Amino acid sequence: MGSKIIVFLRFIKIEHTVFDLPFVFIGISYALLGIRVDSAIVLKILLIVIAAVLARISGMTLNRLIDYPLDKENPRTRGRELVTGKIKISQAKIILLISSLLFILDAFYLNLLAGLLSPLVLLFFYLYPKTKKLPTISHFILGISIGIIVLAGYVGLRASFPYTWYLYGYSLFTALWIASFDIIYQNQDREFDKKKGMKSIPCLTNGKIFIPVASVNAVASAILIASSVGVYNLIANVIASFILLVSLLYVYKYDVDQLFKTFYLPVPFVIVFGIIFQLFIA
After folding, report:
1. How far apart are CA 96 and CA 107, in angstroms?
2. Can you give the residue ranges of every domain in the chain?
3. What digits encode the pLDDT tens for the residues 89-112?
4. Are 175 and 141 in contact (CB under 8 A)?
5. What share of the chain is helix, strand, coil (3-state, %, to 5)?
6. Buried b / exposed e across 210-241, counting CB within 10 Å, b at 16+?
7. What angle do CA 225, 227, 231 make, to 5 degrees?
8. Could you read off the pLDDT of 7-16 as tens digits, one per residue?
9. CATH number of 2-281
10. Hey, is 159 helix, strand or coil?
11. Is the pLDDT at 167 greater than 80, yes or no?
């Protein structure tokens, strides 16, 4: 039983799901302002976190199913659970169906607006693998699918869209942050992808990704700093931006996992800490 759970967690890339979660707390934090926290609010927060996890599971499973024919041929991905048979195609489809339905039901339980918007979230996850043969766009479609999580945290609690522009700024930053890392991640497969007609940025630049990544990181950092509200929030965002910009020095020096753990992973936690300290402690 334990080994099956481990296989499942590897299949859905649980570590990627975990590093996305801090962003949902940006929206939640601002939604909590002026609200008395009681057991009902705590339950809603828990359901929002569960919804974020379910959406990520659904998106990852769909991506694996769509990419299955390519993953069988790509030397780097031949060890994936779907290719090796540790997760069967039929099982993956069941995971996709259950996670998608539970996500939509969870969203409707939170409120009507969240429920009505839930299929849109799944749509962006579906579009991502479908846009890999369109020039550059796939990175940003993936970014949008994750960037939505910031607004989802707010909508889940408030049942309305935020009227504060900086939450949209955080959402856009998240989208660009994800897109930046996806450019680096896709660089691993550029030769294989080029043969298959993919048009990711690494394919189009023949692996010369420094300028594209630097451009995305610079814009993302500017948006992040501009979205700051309060001095402590600003300090945290400047630190997060600094980490992101320093990562550029190691784009070619570090492998993908090392670059992610050293530079990309700390960023959301620094941002969320700054927001929570600004809003509830300072």
Report:
1. 16
2. 2-281
3. 999 999 999 999 999 999 999 999
4. no
5. 80, 0, 20
6. eebbeebbbebbebbbebbbeebbbebbbbbb
7. 70
8. 887 887 777 7
9. 1.10.357.140
10. coil
11. yes
pLDDT digits (tens, 9 = 90+) for 170-204: 999 999 999 999 999 999 999 999 988 899 999 99
Task: Locate 124 and state its tokens.
Answer: 């962006």
- Would the pLDDT of 275 be above 80? yes
Which amino acid is located at 86 in the chain? K
Those residues whose C-beta lies under 8 Å from the C-beta of residue 217, and which sit 6 or more positions away, are 176, 180, 244, 245, 247, 248
Which residue in this structure is represented by tokens 């320093």?
A: 246
95, 57 contact by CB (below 8 A): yes
For residue 103 the two structure tokens come to 């996500």
CB-based contact 222:245 (threshold 8 Å): no
Gap between the Cα atoms of 192 and 199, Å rounded? 11
In angstroms, rounded to a whole number, what is the distance separating the alpha carbons of residues 27 and 98? 26
Q: Are 1 and 29 in contact (CB under 8 A)?
A: no
Which amino acid type is present at position 178? I
